[in-house]
Specification:
alpha/beta; Rossmann fold; 13 helices; about 425 residues; five-stranded parallel beta sheet; eight-stranded mixed beta sheet; elongated; about 40% helix
Length: about 425
């Protein structure tokens, strides 16, 4: 049985690799010819059996032949923080065009793994299929199975993560559940409606966003009271029930947590409901990069270095440790905050060297600011910073040992620590 995968970014790539590993043939569809070329040349997917892989920009041709079409295109938010469903609609139209000319005894299973607002599959995709004259249950089954990819997390590979499945019909639900039962080692959890499946992903990441915001607000609050927030959270976490500890930090990045809550905020607003808690959480987490920039300027001033005469080195551009991805990274907010104070900014990221302005973390700067807790940063030597004239270390990720930094004669300020 063949699988068409529409959008071969972080999610589509992992799904394709797993499917090939499980003995399936995959046809990768992407609008970027360069991605298609890299897949065809064997440079893009980490698979042992390249013969099971093909790639094209012609998604309609793939849909006409595939047993299953998985949609893994991006669903970003725009400048108004509303979801952009353009890529999803384009993929849906492409699949519909292919299904219209399909000659098969069984309906094609179409699964949306992209994160979408509740109601999108029924309202957007099914309506597109309807305009192409396609019939649910005859030409296609439509399901939503939100992705749960965690790039860089070796403890939770794709096949080990349970999945939620919702569909527009009972036969579609059975078909999608069976598909993921074969693909995964983990449990598959069918739910009563496609909308429940769609919104489950948003609930997951909104939960994390809210709890991170709580930790960040506690950190800022306790900083004003000269109390160590990280120690307080650690102490609270000794309670074996009713509490889950989250760490404060320089901000929240990536393609999920800063984005997904807006998919529900916007949809609910259209229905007349205002999400106050989700909105406040987003505001708190969005303010943390600016808070780190302010901390840095304050540290420099206390060390008698004027911001307009200072240079700061930002350690880390990626949004996540040891992952070469800077989407929505707090780095951009920290950098912007510092440049507003006329601080010169340098960047070092060992996993994004092409985006780094210097080739070493040891530079003659006035302040070192940790934005991302890459593993390599744990071994940095404060003594070498001191030898280069660094005055202050501002730690947004609890990377450094405070005593070691202060023993080197440097000022040490950290988010959530006093």
């Amino acid at each position: 049985m063949s699988i068409g995968i529409y959008g071969v970014g972080f999610v589509g790539k992992e799904v394709a690799e797993l499917a090939v590993e499980r003995g399936r043939s995959v046809a990768c569809v992407d609008v970027d010819p360069e991605v298609v070329e890299r897949i065809e040349s064997g440079e893009y997917l980490a698979v042992d059996d390249q013969d099971r892989v093909s790639a094209t920009t012609d998604g309609a041709a793939v849909a006409a032949e595939a047993d299953t079409c998985l949609v893994t295109v991006p669903t970003p938010v725009d400048g108004a923080e509303r979801v952009d469903l353009g890529p999803l609609r384009a993929a849906s139209e492409t699949i519909a065009e292919g299904l219209r000319g399909r000659d098969a005894s069984e309906p094609c299973l179409v699964v949306v793994e992209s994160t979408i607002p509740p109601g999108t599959a029924r309202r957007e995709i099914a309506e597109v299929f309807d305009t192409y004259g396609l019939e649910l249950g005859t030409d296609y089954h439509l399901a939503a199975v939100p992705e749960r990819v965690d790039p860089g997390n070796d403890d939770w590979p794709l096949e080990a993560i349970p999945r939620v499945v919702g569909a527009l019909s009972e036969p579609g639900l059975e078909r999608a559940t069976a598909f993921y039962d074969r693909l995964l080692d983990a449990a598959v959890h069918p739910v009563d409606s496609v909308e429940i499946a769609e919104v489950s992903k948003i609930v997951e990441n909104a939960f994390r966003d809210i709890n991170i915001a709580f930790a960040n607000e506690i950190a800022v609050s306790l900083d004003s009271l000269d109390v160590d927030a990280r120690s307080a959270i650690e102490a609270a976490a000794t309670k074996p029930f009713g509490f889950m500890g989250f760490e404060p930090g320089a901000g929240v990045g990536g393609h999920c947590i800063p984005v997904d809550p807006h998919l529900l905020i916007g949809e609910a607003e259209d229905a007349g409901f205002t999400h106050e808690l989700l909105t406040v959480a987003r505001t708190i987490n969005n303010q943390m990069p600016e808070y780190v920039a302010d901390m840095t300027v304050d540290a420099l001033t206390r060390e008698r270095v004027l911001p307009q005469d200072a240079t700061a080195l930002l350690l880390g551009r990626a949004f996540k440790p040891d992952l070469a991805d800077d989407r929505n990274s707090p780095y951009f907010g920290v950098r912007e905050g510092l440049t507003e104070y006329d601080v010169d900014v340098e960047t070092y990221d060992p996993v994004l060297m092409a985006e780094s302005s210097v080739d070493s973390p040891y530079q003659p700067v006035d302040a070192v600011v940790v934005v991302t807790d890459h593993e390599a940063f744990a071994d940095l030597d404060p003594e070498r910073f001191a030898d280069l004239g660094v005055s202050a270390v501002v730690d947004g990720r609890d990377v450094f040992d405070a005593e070691a930094v202060e023993a080197a004669g440097l000022r040490y300020d950290a988010v959530g620590e006093v």
